[in-house]
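Practice problem 4.
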């Protein structure tokens, strides 16, 4: 005796009121995202104008704007266009790259600790740069080049060490922390073997600084970001699915390992070119993503907002280090390090309070 198969049940229809509620929530979310983006962009413009106007030779804002438009006298043009503007452009580009890289890693691995300066990427760049300065006696453009190569080699080593028929987030973070500790030991050993002048050069680079930023350095950074930003947009199409977990991403038809590898590659390249331009500036990659997501109440990866937040943090910290502490100027890495720790504790306290600890 055969039994009839169970009859299929149709899904319950969605009411018009539910559709209107969902559509209104989506519109409010997009409006908030655009509002936050406009506010961050306005903050970048304000900080840029302040960076070009304030200094030992103060220049009124109308003269700054006239110089940017092609007018103004020769002395004002030299200070604005040759001295202050390349430094500000380098800060904006490097801050945006750090912010993008940190947000990619944190979203992909689903761990707030997974920023490039925690999992060893910038440690690899720093170790390579110190080897170039101390062991090889190199300088100039060779140091940033070695930093980029060091970051890429370190990322490849971390990925291979973390591979066990695939790469999981927690294993990648733990391997990265171990590799970062080993590379820090290499840096410490090299510094103890160097003479005072060479060690001072290496320490200045390790602190993260925009001192001496000129148009050649800014152009190299912009030339590197020109192909990296479209590549990031293309690779990030799989990021929302991957952030839900491997099984869910496979169920949605995403090629998990290929998508993860592409995202790691662009994230490493972004961190590498930013570190090569400014040194390993602390906490920018770590904080930009969480701050941006908190501004929009955790709506997705928020990569664009993370880039703008990174630019605001970098430009604001550089301005504060130059002008807010009297005659003593501090490197941007010192300011981000001092400001980053309490902000990090505040974020962790709020995260634990709402039960979202990562």
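Answer key:
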């Amino acid at each position: 005796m055969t039994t009839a198969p169970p009859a299929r049940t149709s899904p319950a229809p969605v009411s018009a009121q539910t559709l209107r509620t969902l559509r209104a929530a989506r519109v409010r979310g997009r409006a908030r995202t655009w509002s936050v983006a406009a506010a961050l962009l306005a903050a970048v413009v304000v900080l840029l104008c302040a960076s070009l106007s304030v200094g030992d030779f103060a220049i009124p804002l109308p003269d700054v704007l006239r110089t940017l438009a092609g007018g103004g006298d020769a002395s004002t043009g030299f200070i604005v266009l040759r001295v202050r503007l390349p430094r500000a452009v380098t800060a904006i580009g490097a801050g945006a790259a750090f912010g993008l890289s940190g947000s990619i890693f944190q979203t992909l691995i689903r761990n707030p600790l997974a920023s490039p300066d925690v999992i060893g990427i910038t440690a690899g760049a720093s170790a390579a740069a110190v080897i170039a300065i101390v062991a090889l006696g190199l300088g100039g453009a060779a140091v940033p080049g070695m930093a980029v190569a060091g970051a890429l080699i370190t990322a490849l080593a971390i990925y291979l060490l973390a591979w066990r028929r695939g790469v999981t987030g927690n294993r990648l973070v733990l391997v990265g922390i171990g590799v970062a500790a080993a590379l820090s030991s290499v840096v410490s050993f090299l510094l103890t073997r160097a003479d005072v002048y060479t060690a001072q050069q290496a320490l200045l680079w390790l602190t993260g600084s925009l001192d001496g930023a000129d148009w050649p350095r800014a152009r190299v950074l912009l030339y590197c970001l020109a192909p990296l930003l479209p590549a990031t947009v293309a690779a990030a199409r799989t990021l929302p699915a991957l952030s839900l977990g491997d099984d869910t991403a496979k169920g949605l038809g995403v090629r998990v390992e290929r998508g993860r590898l592409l995202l790691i590659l662009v994230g490493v390249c972004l961190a590498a070119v930013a570190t090569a331009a400014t040194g390993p500036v602390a906490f920018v990659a770590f904080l930009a993503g969480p701050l941006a997501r908190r501004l929009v109440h955790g709506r997705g990866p928020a990569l664009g907002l993370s880039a703008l937040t990174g630019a605001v943090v970098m430009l604001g910290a550089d301005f504060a280090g130059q002008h807010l502490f009297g005659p003593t100027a501090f490197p941007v890495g010192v300011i981000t390090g001092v400001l980053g720790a309490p902000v990090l504790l505040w974020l962790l306290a709020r995260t634990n309070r709402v039960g979202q600890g990562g």
